[in-house]
Design brief:
This protein is mainly alpha-helical. The protein has 23 helices and 7 strands. The strands form 2 sheets. The protein has a 5-stranded mixed beta sheet with strand order 2-1-3-6-5, covered by helices on one side. The termini are far apart. The N terminus is likely disordered.
Length: 511
């Protein structure tokens, strides 16, 4: 620590001015402003439309806290339970952590630009790209595992880059803690760790392979992840079964294998894609960032892995902040050459166009009845519409039963089951059961429980497992939005074909 004193022992006159200048310099940095503005916008729009099917699922999972579930770790259900305890039934409160996480991703993207040699304008370019990126806006709008996964990948990448640049070995254990917490959300950060390791093996700096601090960080991450690993082992690794189902395309967000890389152009914005492409090229070719070349190789290798394994396009999005951070400096340099005002106007237009399009695609800014075209582009928006109407339809069916005593609801998926758990108590609905993912582990109907209100099940599922079924209603979200539930049947059945204990294994399904 240095102490500046004059010959008389007092502080020089210019020290207060230097401190004030430093304070003003920090305040003028654009990254915190852009990050805060992103969070404010997301909080302001948080209550639009309604719960996503996954959010309904997380709320119920939070009432069954465990170290693991068939399809995820405990972190997001824990967040859902905490926010529900703070402000029950508040969609804005539930989504507040996601808005903060999105702001964190924006800030860290700007910091990555700084670590990779960018100027203050480069920091702003990087943070601005993240702020208008469709993947940041959409995951920041909803409470989802993808929200915290994106934050974990970005934070780990920033810590690794900073540890290499500064030589601060104490950052490696911190990176291990962040990685371990991210793994308790979902297992995808394990691919990040493997990708970064493979990138270092290919491109260096290979001294990291001998660093005890780096391996200490890995050991910390593994220790934090171990309760989930133990849970999965004790339950015969259902996560692998879920992964196999998803790789076969059994998800609304699944895409063909060849779409992994082209989809990256949409996850930020097509007109801003040159920024992260410039970052990829720079990391591969620029000697000034030679020690960070492993980031580009990690992206390339993981792209191949996800294409080969049937992964979803957004799995690769966690490395986009690093590529954007690397690409901000070349864009900044390009702005300073030639007709700078024309180039600046072009970049500003790209930001404005990206923001206008991505806000409409990712956030609930249109009236719900006008959301149909958006759902055609982003199917997940449709999954935030119609759940109260579904619960009311089931309630009308329940009230029409001649003898509702002992009746149960059997839902096709966790979204339909979660809608009952969120809205059903106020409508007097009986308990819901579902064989989908973790719901299958939270209990089956008692033997003899009947009649059955079957929600969303197809004719072949009804014929295989239930008897005496007749359709009595159709699900209608009252907005004309063609989502996954629209038009599905609600049937009344006399009961299971055999006992519930015998039928239940056939009703369980993952994906």
């Amino acid at each position: 620590m240095y102490v500046f004193e004059s010959a008389s022992g007092s502080l020089p006159d210019d020290i207060p001015r230097l401190a004030l200048r430093s304070s003003r310099d920090r305040m003028r940095r654009p990254v915190p402003v852009i990050a805060a503005a992103t969070t404010v916008v997301l909080v302001a729009l948080a209550s639009g439309y309604g719960y996503h099917r996954d959010e309904l699922y997380f709320l119920e999972a939070g009432r069954h806290l465990d170290w693991g579930y068939a399809d995820q770790g405990p972190l997001t259900p824990l967040v859902a339970r905490a926010m529900s305890a703070i402000a029950a039934d508040s969609l804005t409160a539930l989504r507040l952590p996601s808005a903060l996480a999105a702001g964190g991703v924006v800030a860290l993207t700007g910091l990555l630009a700084r670590e990779l040699g960018g100027s203050r304008r480069a920091e702003a370019i990087a943070a601005g790209c993240a702020a208008v990126a469709s993947v940041v806006l959409f995951t920041g709008h909803l409470l989802s595992t993808s929200t915290f996964d994106l934050l974990a990948w970005t934070a780990v990448t920033w810590l690794v880059v900073r540890a290499i640049r500064t030589g601060e070995d104490r950052l490696w254990p911190v990176a291990g803690v962040v990685l371990g917490v991210g793994l308790l959300n979902k297992p995808l950060p394990a691919f990040l760790a493997a990708g970064l390791l493979a990138g270092v093996v290919v491109a260096g700096p290979r001294r990291l392979l001998r660093s005890p601090w780096a391996w200490m960080g890995a050991a910390i991450a593994l220790a934090l992840w171990s309760p989930w690993l133990v849970w999965q082992t004790a339950h015969d690794w259902p996560q692998l079964d879920v992964a196999r189902e998803l790789s076969s395309g059994q998800s609304t967000s699944s895409e063909p294998w060849w779409a992994i890389v082209p989809f990256q152009f949409l996850l930020v914005s097509p007109v801003l894609a040159p920024v992260w492409i410039a970052g990829l090229v720079r990391l591969l070719r620029d000697p000034s960032v030679r020690q960070y070349r492993f980031l580009a190789w990690a992206w390339v290798l993981l792209a191949v892995v996800f294409m080969a394994s049937g992964g979803k396009p957004y799995y690769l999005s966690g490395l986009l902040p690093a590529l954007i951070g690397a690409g901000a400096a070349p864009v900044d340099a390009w702005l300073g050459r030639g007709r700078s005002r024309v180039r600046e106007a072009a970049v500003l237009a790209a930001f404005a166009l990206s923001a206008a399009i991505n806000v409409v695609i990712a956030l609930p800014v249109l009236p719900v009845r006008d959301a149909g075209p958006v759902v055609e582009v982003n199917e997940d928006v449709g999954e935030t519409i119609g759940w109260p109407a579904l619960a009311r339809t089931v309630a009308r069916v329940d009230r029409g039963l001649p003898d509702p005593a002992g009746a149960v609801i059997l839902a096709r998926n966790y979204g339909e089951a979660g809608a009952r758990d969120r809205y059903g108590p106020g409508l007097g609905l009986p308990r819901v059961y579902s064989g989908h993912n973790a719901y299958a582990d939270w209990g089956r109907p008692a033997d003899g429980a009947a009649p059955v209100i079957a929600v969303g099940l197809d004719d072949d599922q009804l014929a295989e497992h239930l008897r005496g079924c007749r359709p009595v209603a159709r699900i209608d979200n009252d907005a004309g939005v063609d989502n996954d539930e629209q038009g599905r049947p609600v049937s009344v059945c006399a009961g299971p074909r055999r006992s519930w204990a015998v039928e239940w294994p056939g009703l369980r399904h993952l994906g």
